[in-house]
Amino acid sequence: MTEALGLMAQLTGDRPRCERHNQYMPCQHVECQQGSREPAWAAGVRAESDVHAAIESAPEQDVLPKAFKPGGSFFLQALDAPPAIWGRDGEVLWAEGEALVLAGPQGVGKTTIATQLIRARLGLQETVLGLPVQPGKKCLILAMDRPAQFRRAGRRIFGADDEDYLNEHLVVWEGPPPYDLAKRTDILAAMCDKAGADTVLVDSIKDGALGISSDEVGAGYNRARQKALAEGVQVLENHHVKKAGANGGEPNTLADVYGSVWITAGAGSVIMLWGEAGDPVVTFRHLKQPMDEVGPLQLIHEHQSGITTVRHSADLVDMARIGGVHGLTAAAAAEAMFETKKPTPAQREKARRKLDKLVSQRLLIKVGSTTPSDPARWYPAAPDGTHGPSR
User: Fold this and answer.
1) How far apart are CA 323 and CA 11, in angstroms?
2) What is the Cα–Cα distance from 216 to 322, expressed in whole angstroms?
3) N or C: which end of the chain has fewer CB atoms below 10 A?
4) Per-residue pLDDT tens digits for 295-340
């Protein structure tokens, strides 16, 4: 027995272990066996990661001077609104240099919308949900969650596009990543570097970092995400939610997003999609915003074409016109925007901000409150943006 143990120690002592499954390499776990079908450049990813890690572990005297920036320039040269990858003016759904999380249960269209965004980043369409998308250069898709289903969905969306163009500008990684993204936080940036991509779609977070409900894992994944962003990569992520919101209702807060708080804390924008799996109409809520809130919206998924459109968005200018001499109050606007007869104070405040923004765009005018029982009202602006009805 002693001799056998000694022989095993000699045979295995210098062999590396699989970081994901703690088995001696080559790992026989099914997830690692799937790795044999990865793209040809997969073998070099660890080397790229080691390069990133070596840079990070460079002597302090080499790194620290490069990390400092003059405070005046840092703050005073900042733009009023972040440059938008997806959006316009203050309606920014995906800001440059900040991750966008598309959260929702299974089957509500996260992958459908994410793939349309990738298609727009490839310059093959101009808008998604009516908002412009800035084109990029090359995209990497980490198809880790049910890649066969993702492939079928992508065929519907890319079906009319040129295969050679897609081969040149789009790279897909199928199945689990080579290492857990939360444990080797350089891997995500290294994969993007190896693929030559300036945009990455992570589908989905739970498949790239195991145990994402743990804050340790969540913080590790967020560090990987931030390293990719620091390298100039635009990060788009699909993620899941808890089974239901408060009291079993529709999830509509950041707390309803599954996993560690670092998943949403480290993102610049979080969108919640809600509905039953396969529903053609789903709810869209913008839970975390780089600038102004967009929506809520009702989305229609055209499953045959893979295209998503907006079904309903409250037209506040039209509502003010229909209101005639009574105009439109913030409470009435909130009822329409959030589809409720009893809007909360926060919902009324969001409606008021949206109304005030329309005033700044010279589409509405505001007549302030004269008594506590008579709320402020908004009316359609005349063509010159200066006249409203008399009261």
Assistant:
1) 83
2) 54
3) N
4) 889 899 887 788 899 986 678 888 888 888 889 999 998 888 887 8
